[in-house]
Design a protein that fits this description.
- The protein has 478 residues and is α+β, with helices and mostly antiparallel strands.
- It is 59% helix and 12% strand.
- It has a 6-stranded mixed beta sheet, sandwiched between helices. It has a 3-stranded antiparallel beta sheet with strand order 7-9-8, sandwiched between helices.
- The protein is extended.
Length: 478
């Protein structure tokens, strides 16, 4: 799908969801009894003006571009028992796109400060009764940092909504409206939509999720959500996918994925009971415990890797400084620091090697247990069953082949001798008809032009001469 189609789909989705959200909240969670949705023309006018500036007058191109649709939502309040309706809030919404980039085939860029100011200027020239109370501008490519700063202190109230690569929305609302009822109008994403976005990021980070895990903070940054919202989504995702699990490390929660699913809370209670009784845990429980240990060791080794990178960088800097030093005192000081750095580096590398060996042992044990458990979970037939089934199949195939040969040898035809003679006569007639045009064509070729010429009318004089020469006439009938 090209950029034009993608952005048109974004535009339709944004305006449709905003309208549906307004209708659902009106009369319940918004200080308005009803909402009236009306189409406006600022999107069409803006796109036409931009194409005119570019010198493009292609009607088909104009109709294929995004940014043509715009919407006005009038939130009305009933008065005097419904006899009168007064408009409390007038909201305008449209999508900003990089029209020049779409026409010239370039990659569209995020909308900047001047693009937002130009869009707002169109509402300043409207009559006082039609000026909006708030303006919602959306962009499939998002907004720059300078553009997002305009939401504070701008009249009318400005809300910027940018599209995300994972299908979410970046909503920028002025600080004074974050806790107002109107902020709910711009919560276009449902919890199910966020779960799907979470699954998208987990699929993108598949190897990292299985090996080292992903911290809740890092996952929240990728999704554009706070820590509490991300933790709630992770808990729900863990309930939906029993293979997902969280591991505590250094005050953080790490999300990872186990080879086998958790049996549920009853299994956890039974596991604790078995531990109290000194019974051996199941294979799935042992694998999950080993996976939790592996995640902790992986994160510890990641910390050690960062320390190694830091010390190695310090070692390289000290070597460069020592080579450039001019006095002996400087060189001695740098040499002392280099000795300390190398000793620390040696210790850290030894710790790193220890963690690597522990990870190898745990990963090998997890692999072996997983293979053994997976083999037990699939109920495969035994050798005796395989042999018996093969013999039965061979016997059935042999009988079927013999019956097929017998059927082919004793098949009775439905034709009679008379039918065969009639068919032979028809075939001979076909051959005779096929040969007749060839014989006619050969005769025409052998004849002279004079012979092939046929007089169009009889000659009376020639007939008279033939009678005078004694040509006998046909006898008359009595």
């Amino acid at each position: 799908m090209d950029d034009r189609s993608t952005q048109r789909e974004f535009e339709d989705q944004f305006l449709r969801q905003l309208r549906a959200r307004a209708v659902n909240l009106a009369g319940t969670k918004l200080p308005a009894d009803e909402v009236v949705a009306e189409a406006t023309n600022e999107g069409v006018d803006s796109t036409r003006a931009e194409l005119s500036r570019l010198g493009v007058y292609d009607t088909d191109l104009f109709e294929s571009l995004p940014g043509l649709s715009s919407l006005q939502l009038r939130f009305r309040k009933k008065m005097l028992g419904g006899l009168l309706n007064t408009t409390r809030v007038r909201l305008r919404a449209r999508v900003l796109v990089d029209t020049a980039a779409l026409v010239e085939g370039r990659a569209p860029a995020p909308m900047g400060r001047e693009d937002v100011r130009l869009a707002l200027a169109r509402y300043e020239v409207l009559p006082r009764s039609q000026k909006p109370s708030a303006v919602v501008l959306a962009s499939p490519t998002g907004f720059t940092e300078d553009a997002r700063r305009l939401i504070e202190g701008t009249e009318p109230t400005l809300i910027l909504i940018g599209g995300r690569a994972d299908g979410g929305w970046d909503v920028n609302v002025p600080e004074k409206y974050r806790k107002s009822p109107w902020a709910k109008l711009f919560e276009l994403e449902t919890r199910d939509d966020r779960i799907r976005r979470l699954q998208y990021h987990l699929e993108q980070a598949g190897p990292e999720l299985d090996a080292r895990g992903i911290s809740i903070e890092s996952l929240g940054e990728k999704m554009g959500l706070g820590r509490l919202e991300t933790e709630a989504l992770v808990r729900r995702a863990c309930r939906q996918d029993a293979r997902l699990m969280t591991v505590a490390y250094d005050g953080r929660q790490i999300l990872t994925r186990s080879p086998f699913a958790d049996k549920g809370s009853t299994m956890s209670i039974w596991s604790r009971l078995k531990r109290l009784l000194g019974l051996k845990p199941s294979t799935a429980e042992r694998i999950r415990e080993l996976n939790a240990q592996r995640i902790q060791l992986e994160n510890q080794r990641g910390d050690e890797d960062q320390r190694v990178d830091t010390l190695e960088s310090q070692e390289r800097d000290l070597l460069k400084q020592g080579a450039a030093a001019e006095t002996r005192v400087e060189k001695q000081q740098l040499a002392g620091r280099l000795v300390r750095v190398r000793r620390d580096l040696k210790r850290v590398k030894a710790q790193q090697q220890l963690l690597t060996q522990q990870l190898n042992i745990i990963s090998t044990q997890m692999h072996n247990l997983t293979m053994a458990e997976q083999g037990k979970r699939v109920d495969l037939p035994k050798a005796e069953d395989l042999t018996t089934a093969a013999a039965e199949a061979e016997q059935v195939v042999s009988e079927l082949a013999a019956n097929a040969d017998l059927a082919a040898s004793i098949e009775v035809a439905g034709e009679t001798p008379m039918m065969n003679e009639e068919q032979d006569a028809i075939l001979a007639e076909f051959e005779e008809l096929a040969a007749t045009p060839e014989a006619d064509a050969a005769a025409d070729t052998a004849a002279t032009p004079a012979e092939r010429e046929v007089p169009s009318e009889p000659d009376p004089a020639a007939a008279t001469r033939r009678k005078a020469d004694g040509e006998s006439a046909r006898p008359e009938m009595n």
